[in-house]
């Protein structure tokens, strides 16, 4: 793809997100979401592989359906209340339809089935954009809405944490595992969204850092399946030694950074008197932790079979570690003494 076309598409991708961020009118928010969708489609299909074309077609149909449903919910709200303001989503029917449309855009359970298939058909760089940047615009609308049906948010969040942990157990493809990881993390954000939006945003920020780190590690090693992780130590030994800590941080194991948002979300939900939901969400994190442990085991304790006719992988790969990956790896493995300071900033 031409650098000029790539620059224009990336600019439109950022422009669509910024329009949705800065808009308080449903039509402008819908317009930003549509620009965002149309900008990423050429990036997804740039390699002209049949699997990429299939994933792009699925993504376009799902996003068009969600955008049409979102616009329909905004029209219902304008009809009943006489206003197009995002923060004035008070009618229960329109609020429910809008929340379900945004859940479909984000890939939350039970509208999650498209996300693993689409992510599996993309390369790791475009998959990183889909798993991170594309979540910003719908999530910003969710934060601005006045939710009159908090039970729906709790149901979607709890189901997403369960499906995200359960669905990744029998996967062998890394992109599908990361898709289910995204579903589980978004479920945690949705659980705390109506009680503490600042905490949800902090969780989203840490999720972005950890997801960027693990996508960069897999891209550097050119790994797309669990079996391919067994040769990663020959390409970047130091990074392979640190990757299990990054994976365990994604799983939320103390004392790593990924445990900090889960700890604060569990604390906030307990203060709201939601002990049963908190317990189920905490137990669902064990499901996610299991397949992260599988990846760690494959990367550090498993050796690939060595044959004399094979070409050594260390002669083919570049072992340079870029600066953003080093910074994000350090941020992912920060220890928990920072947690009280962050807790005081988020919950003054």
TrEMBL record:
Its main location: mitochondrion. It is a multi-pass membrane protein. It holds the Pfam family Proton_antipo_M. Keywords: Electron transport, Membrane, Mitochondrion, Mitochondrion inner membrane, NAD, Respiratory chain, Translocase, Transmembrane, Transmembrane helix, Transport, Ubiquinone. It comes from the Eukaryota. The chain crosses the membrane at residues 60-80, 92-115, 150-168, 174-193, 200-220, 232-253, 274-293, 321-339. It is found in: Mitochondrion inner membrane. GO terms for biological process: mitochondrial electron transport, NADH to ubiquinone. Residues 289-342 form the NADH dehydrogenase subunit 2 C-terminal domain. Its EC number is 7.1.1.2. It catalyses: a ubiquinone + NADH + 5 H(+)(in) = a ubiquinol + NAD(+) + 4 H(+)(out). GO terms for cellular component: mitochondrial inner membrane. It is an enzyme of class 7 (translocase). GO terms for molecular function: NADH dehydrogenase (ubiquinone) activity. The keyword Ligase does not apply. The keyword Metal-binding does not apply. Residues 23-287 form the NADH:quinone oxidoreductase/Mrp antiporter transmembrane domain. Core subunit of the mitochondrial membrane respiratory chain NADH dehydrogenase (Complex I) which catalyzes electron transfer from NADH through the respiratory chain, using ubiquinone as an electron acceptor. Essential for the catalytic activity and assembly of complex I. Belongs to the complex I subunit 2 family. PANTHER family: NADH-UBIQUINONE OXIDOREDUCTASE CHAIN 2. This is NADH-ubiquinone oxidoreductase chain 2.
């Amino acid at each position: 793809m031409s650098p000029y076309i790539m620059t224009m598409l990336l600019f439109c991708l950022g422009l669509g997100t910024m329009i949705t961020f800065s808009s308080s009118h449903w039509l402008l928010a819908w317009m930003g979401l549509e620009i965002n969708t149309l900008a990423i489609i050429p990036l997804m299909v740039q390699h002209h592989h049949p699997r990429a074309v299939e994933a792009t077609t699925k993504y376009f149909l799902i996003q068009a359906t969600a955008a049409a449903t979102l616009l329909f919910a905004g029209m219902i709200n304008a009809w009943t209340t006489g206003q197009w303001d995002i923060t004035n989503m008070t009618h229960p029917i329109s609020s429910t339809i809008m929340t379900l449309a945004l859940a479909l855009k984000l890939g939350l359970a039970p509208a999650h089935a498209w996300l693993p298939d689409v992510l599996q058909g993309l390369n790791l760089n475009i998959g990183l954009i889909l798993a991170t940047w594309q979540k910003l615009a719908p999530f910003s609308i969710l934060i601005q809405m006045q939710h009159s049906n908090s039970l729906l948010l709790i149901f979607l969040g709890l189901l997403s944490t369960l499906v995200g942990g359960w669905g990744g157990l029998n996967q062998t493809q890394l992109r599908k595992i990361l898709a289910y990881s995204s579903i589980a993390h978004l479920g945690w954000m949705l659980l705390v969204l109506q009680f503490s939006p600042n905490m949800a945003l902090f969780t989203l920020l840490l999720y972005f850092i950890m997801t960027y780190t693990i996508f960069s590690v897999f891209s550097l090693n050119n790994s797309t399946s669990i079996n391919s992780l067994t040769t990663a130590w020959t390409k970047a030994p130091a990074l392979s030694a640190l990757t299990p800590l990054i994976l365990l941080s994604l799983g939320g194991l103390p004392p790593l950074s990924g445990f900090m948002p889960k700890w604060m979300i569990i604390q906030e939900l307990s203060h709201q008197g939601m002990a049963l939901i908190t317990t189920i969400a905490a137990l669902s994190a064990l499901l996610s932790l299991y397949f992260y442990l599988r990846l760690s085991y494959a990367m550090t304790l498993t050796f690939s079979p060595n044959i004399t006719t094979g070409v050594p992988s260390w002669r083919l790969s570049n072992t340079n570690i870029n600066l953003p990956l080093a910074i994000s790896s350090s941020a992912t493995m920060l220890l928990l003494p920072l947690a009280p300071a962050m807790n005081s900033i988020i919950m003054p």
